[in-house]
Write a sequence for this structure.
């Protein structure tokens, strides 16, 4: 542990190139692996198309759930530096192992020229190596995704500097993802998978080296325990005191030992809802030591802890609407790749063909462009017309609407693709390309990107504004959590559709993807109604004089 004197000389902009450099390396590696995984599974492991989409959804779900675990581990035990270093190394091992599956023929099944049912499926050992590589990549990405931005922000004392860092961090993330989804994916498709995955492993190694070289310059975050522990303590304490009559006297509640913490906790409101949790902050004999500190943390909590849990519970309904917002996006992202594989991906009359895994780039481009339009035009116009800044709930709501429109457009485009394929009698030939440009898929991807420009920043702003300071990292993590759950749910939805309907056969030219998209649009409409209902009854937190609700 560095001395206070050495800690004071660290941090600031000298750490910026090390954190941004490491982020660039890992994002370059992750973007091409995740974005082109469906194509790799189909072409090199003879996995059926829908099964490949399912595997990709599971891996993507892991990459969004892992940041929650990584944040908890770094907060409670090891700190950001060690978690980022180990996670980047794990990700590099996964990229190396994935490179071996592409270069050593015994690690994958024999190649299959067509998509007939006679293609040899991978053996158990081959699947084991493949899944091990993908698991290592997912764990590595997850361990760095949230910790990198938190550690980077910790290096700056001034909010202005932190804002600049955030802008450059997310710009770097988007730019690196676009570069990997185009450049490295092109190498994988047109040169060799071995070279493509090798570039991913090399980028990962460079990122790890850059990050470790900056160790002497970083301000290191001291592990301070997970905020989830404090929330769990409130639940347990309230249950253990469930038979207690809640006192009407404010002095019967525990505010904390530190005077500054007490003053801060007094500004928090114990809302009338969830009154039974108030018992967790009620002092009883033996709960505290003589010096006023808590003797039984699983029986007594501070008023602040109780208010934090109530905030979390109050916002959960709004948060849950994001799951059904992420699920259609997860389904669409992989089905779009399958559609692109069966369409003409040439640009005009040129010989250049867009890799199917690069189609996702249009989402990122649309998000970047939409963010600029929202910031420079829509928000000022809204403010001039209404005299108010658009609220986070309004921005998220617009994201819901655009997501529904995207699913409807996807259904219309797929109907046209299916019609053209049947008019050319291609429904019995899964390997043949429908004479329709893959650029028809761009509008639906652009709408998804525009929607993300509204609902993602809106959710970040909402959780940052509404959550107490100690739980703001938790609020950011909740966004990754709902995206991860959305990917897992998308896997379940596709599996259910395959079992109940005949819409998703292995031959995409015989499929009814348009029905799947229409179903997702209808689900989106119901989810929008649920969101409007939750937003209608949600009240923004306001700083008021402390009011202790003591009704039992």
């Amino acid at each position: 542990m560095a001395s206070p004197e050495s800690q004071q000389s660290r941090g600031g902009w000298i750490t910026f190139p090390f954190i941004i450099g490491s982020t660039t390396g890992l994002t370059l590696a992750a973007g091409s692996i995740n974005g082109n995984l469906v194509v790799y599974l189909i072409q090199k492991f003879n996995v059926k198309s829908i099964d490949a989409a399912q595997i990709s959804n599971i891996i993507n779900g892991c990459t969004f759930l892992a940041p929650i675990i990584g944040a908890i581990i770094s907060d409670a035990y090891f700190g950001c530096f060690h978690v980022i270093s180990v996670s980047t190394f794990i990700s590099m091992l996964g990229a190396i192992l994935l490179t071996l599956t592409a270069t050593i023929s015994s690690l994958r099944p024999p190649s299959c020229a067509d998509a007939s049912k006679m293609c040899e499926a991978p053996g158990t050992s081959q699947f084991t190596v493949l899944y091990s590589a993908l698991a290592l990549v997912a764990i590595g990405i997850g361990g760095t995704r949230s910790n990198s931005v938190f550690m980077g922000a910790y290096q700056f004392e001034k909010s202005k500097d932190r804002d600049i860092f955030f802008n450059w961090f997310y710009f770097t993330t988007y730019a690196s993802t676009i570069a990997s989804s185009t450049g490295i994916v092109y190498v994988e498709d047109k040169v060799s998978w071995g070279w493509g995955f090798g570039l991913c492993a090399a980028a990962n190694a460079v990122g790890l080296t850059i990050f470790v070289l900056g160790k002497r310059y970083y301000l290191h975050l001291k592990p301070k325990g997970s905020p989830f522990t404090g929330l769990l303590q409130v639940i347990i304490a309230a249950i253990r005191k469930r038979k207690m009559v809640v006192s009407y006297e404010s002095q019967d509640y525990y505010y904390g030992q530190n005077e500054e913490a007490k003053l801060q906790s007094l500004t928090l409101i114990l809302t009338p809802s969830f009154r039974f949790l108030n018992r967790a902050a009620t002092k009883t004999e033996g709960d505290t030591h003589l010096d006023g500190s808590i003797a039984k943390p699983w029986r007594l909590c501070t008023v602040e802890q109780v208010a934090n849990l109530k905030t979390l519970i109050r916002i959960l309904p709004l948060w849950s609407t994001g799951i059904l917002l992420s699920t259609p996006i997860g389904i669409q992202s992989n089905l779009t790749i399958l559609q692109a594989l069966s369409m003409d991906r040439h640009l005009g009359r040129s010989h250049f063909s867009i890799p199917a895994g690069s189609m996702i780039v249009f989402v990122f481009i649309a998000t970047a462009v939409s963010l600029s339009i929202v910031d420079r035009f829509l928000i000022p116009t809204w403010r001039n017309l209404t005299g108010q800044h658009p609220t986070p709930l309004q921005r998220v709501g617009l994201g819901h609407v655009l997501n529904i429109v995207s699913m409807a457009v996807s259904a219309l485009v797929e109907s046209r693709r299916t019609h053209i394929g049947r008019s050319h009698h291609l429904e019995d030939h899964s390997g043949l390309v429908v004479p329709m440009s893959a650029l028809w898929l761009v509008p639906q991807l652009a709408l998804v990107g525009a929607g993300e420009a509204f609902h993602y920043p809106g959710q970040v702003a909402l959780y940052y504004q509404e959550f107490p300071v100690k739980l703001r990292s938790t609020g950011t993590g909740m966004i990754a959590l709902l995206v991860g759950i959305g990917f897992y749910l998308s896997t379940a939805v596709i599996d259910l559709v395959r079992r109940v309907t005949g819409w998703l056969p292995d031959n995409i030219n015989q499929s009814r993807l348009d029905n799947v998209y229409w179903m997702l649009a209808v689900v989106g409409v119901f989810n929008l109604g649920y969101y409007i209902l939750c937003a209608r009854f949600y009240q923004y937190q306001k700083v008021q004089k402390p009011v202790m609700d003591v009704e039992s």
Summary: Confidence is low (pLDDT under 50) at residues 542-552. The two ends are 48 Å apart (CA to CA). Residues 227-305 form one domain. The CA atoms of residues 267 and 530 lie 31 Å apart.
